[in-house]
Amino acid sequence: MGEVKFSKEHEWIKLDGDVATIGITKHATEMLGDIVFVELPESGSSIEKDGNAGVVESTKAASDVYTPVSGQVLECNQSIIDDPSKINSDPENQAWFFKLKIKDKSEMESLMNKEEYDKFAKENTN
Amino acid sequence: MLKNAQKDFIQRHIGTSEEEQKVMLQELGYKNLDELISKTVPEKILLKESLNIGDSNSEYKALRKLKNISKKNKVYSSFIGMGYYGTYTPYVILRNILENPGWYTSYTPYQPEVAQGRLEMLLNFQQMVIDFTGMDIANASLLDEGTAAAEAMGLSHRLCKKDTKKVFISKNCHPQTIDVIKTRAEPLGLKIVVGDEDKDINESIICGIIQYPGTLGDIKDPSEAISKIHKHNGKAVLVCDLLALAKLKTPGELGADIAVGSSQRFGIPMGYGGPHAAFFATKDEFKRSMPGRIVGVSVDRHGNKALRLALQTREQHIRRDKATSNICTAQALLAIVSAAYAVYHGPKGIRKIAESVSQLTKNFADKLKQSGYELYSDYFFDTVTIKTLDKTDKIYKNALDQQVNIRKVNSEMLSVSFDERKNLYRANQLLKIFNCSETIKETMNKSLSNLPKNLLRTSTYLDHPVFNSYHSETGMLRYLKRLEDSDIALNRSMIALGSCTMKLNSVSEMIPVTWKEFSQPHPFSPVEQVDGFRELFTDLKNWLRSITGFSGVSLQPNAGAQGEFAGLMVIRKFHEKNGEKNRNICLIPSSAHGTNPASAQMVGMKVVVINCDQQGNVDYDDLKKKVEEYSDNLAALMVTYPSTHGVFEEKITDICDLIHKNGGQVYMDGANLNALVGIAKPGNFGPDICHINLHKTFCIPHGGGGPGMGPIACKKHLEIYLPSHSIVSDCGPATGIGAVSAAPWGSSSILSISWMYIKMMGSEGLKLATQNAILNANYIANKLKDHFPILYKGKNGNVAHECIIDIRKIKRETGITEEDIAKRLIDFGFHAPTMSWPVPGTMMIEPTESESLSEINRFCETLVKIKEEINKIKNGKFDKIDNPLKNAPHTHVELTANKWTHKYDRETAAYPSATLKSYKYWPPVARVDNVYGDKNLFCSCPSLDDYKETAA
Question: Rounded to two decimals, what is the model's pTM?
Answer without folding.
Answer: 0.95
